[in-house]
Amino acid sequence: MSTPTKVAARRPLSPRKRAQRIRAVQYAVLIAIVVIAIFAADWKQIGEVFFKPDLIKTTITQGLGRALLNTIVYTAGAFVFGLVVGTVLAVMRLSEIGPYRWIATAYIEFFRGLPALIVFLMFSLMPLAFPTLRIPYDPYGTVWLALGIVASAYMAETIRGGIQAVHKGQAEAARSLGMTSGQAMRKVILPQAFRTMLPPLTNELILLVKDSSLVYIIGLAATQAELTKYGRDLSVQYANMTPLVVAGAAYLIITLPLSVVVRRMEASAGKAR
Predict the structure, then answer these.
(1) Which one of 55, 57, 121, 236 is at 20 to 30 Å from 156 when CA atoms are compared?
(2) Which controlled-vocabulary keywords does the entry list (predicted)?
(3) Which has the closest alpha carbon to 188: 204, 201, 176?
C-alpha cells in the first residue's frame, strides 16, 4: 500500500512549482543581503559623507538652480541641433542619389563610433588649430555643436527607421496629388513618422541630459557650470560627497518625468496597434 505513496513522493516538480521555489530562494537571498547591509553599514559615517544637512542646504542655495538651468539649456540646444541635422541625414541616407547616401553614412558611422568625450576634446582644442575661429554664443554654442553632432548621428538612424515604417502607399498617394518628393516628405511622411519616433527620441533626450555632464571638459566659468561640474567643484571645496549627491538628485528631477513620458507613449503606441 505504501508503494504508490513513495512513487508520488518521487514525482518531479512541475515547471511552475520549480519556478516558484527558485523565486522564493532568490527573494530570501536578497532579503538576507539587505538585512546584512543595514546592520553592517556605518550609517552615521554615511550621513556625514553623503547627506550632510548643512552642505545640502549650501548646495541648494549657492547656485544649484543656475546649474540646473544651464544643464537644461545645454541639453535643449543640443537636442534641437541634433534633431534638425539628424532629419537631414536620415533623408540623405534614404536618397536615391549615391553621394548623399555615402556622405550621410560616413557621418553617422563616424560619430556613432566616437565617444562623446573625444568630440568634446576636439572642440575644446579647436582654437589651437584655428586661432581665428569663433563659435557664436560660446560656450553654449560649443556645447550645442559638440553634443548635437553626436546626438544627430544617433537620431538619424531613429528617424530613418521611422520614415521607413510609413507605408509606401502614403508617398505614392502624395505624388498622385501632384506633390514633389520633397513636399511629400515634409507634409505627409515626416509628420506620420515622428509620431512613431517620439518614444525613442525622448530616450535620446534623456541620454543628452546625462551626456551634458561632459561639458566640464571644455572649461567653464562658475556661472556657466552644469550640474556635474557644480557638484564636483563643491565636493572638492568641502571635501565631501554631499554636493554630488544633490547634483545627482537634480538630474533625476529632469530624467524621471521624461522616463514616465516615454513609458506612457510606448503604452499608447502599443494600444494603437
Answers:
(1) 121
(2) Amino-acid transport, Cell membrane, Membrane, Transmembrane, Transmembrane helix, Transport
(3) 176
**pLDDT tens figures, 146-175:** 899 999 999 999 988 888 887 777 767 777
Q: How many helices (H) and strands (E) does the chain have?
A: 14, 0
Q: Give the relative orientation of helices 65-93 and 98-113 as an angle to the nearest 10 degrees.
A: 150
CA distance 159 to 83: 9
pLDDT in tens, 103-123: 999 999 999 988 888 888 888
pLDDT of residue 273: 55
Cβ-contact 89, 261 below 8 angstroms: no
CA atoms of 80 and 201, how far apart (whole Å): 11
Distance, CA of 90 to CA of 235 (rounded, Å): 43
Counted residue by residue, the chain has a size of 273
Band (8; pLDDT cuts 50, 70, 90): low
Across the chain, the runs of DSSP E, i.e. the strands, are none
The half-sphere exposure of 224 on its side-chain side, counting CA atoms within 13 A, is 15
Task: Spell out the domain ranges in the chain.
Answer: 53-272
Confidence of residue 79 (pLDDT cuts 50, 70, 90): very high
CA distances from 173 to 112, 128, 163, 166 (A): 35, 53, 15, 12
- Mark 143-177 as b/e (b = at least 16 C-beta within 10 Å): bbbbbbbbbbbbbbbbbbebbeebeeeebeebeee
Whole-number Å distance between alpha carbons of 140 and 226:
11
Tell me which architecture the domain covering 53-272 has in CATH: Orthogonal Bundle (1.10)
260 alpha carbon, distance to own chain's centre: 13
**Average of per-residue pLDDT values in the chain:** 83
- How far, CA to CA in Å, does 252 sit from each of 105, 136, 163, 206, 209? 34, 30, 32, 10, 10
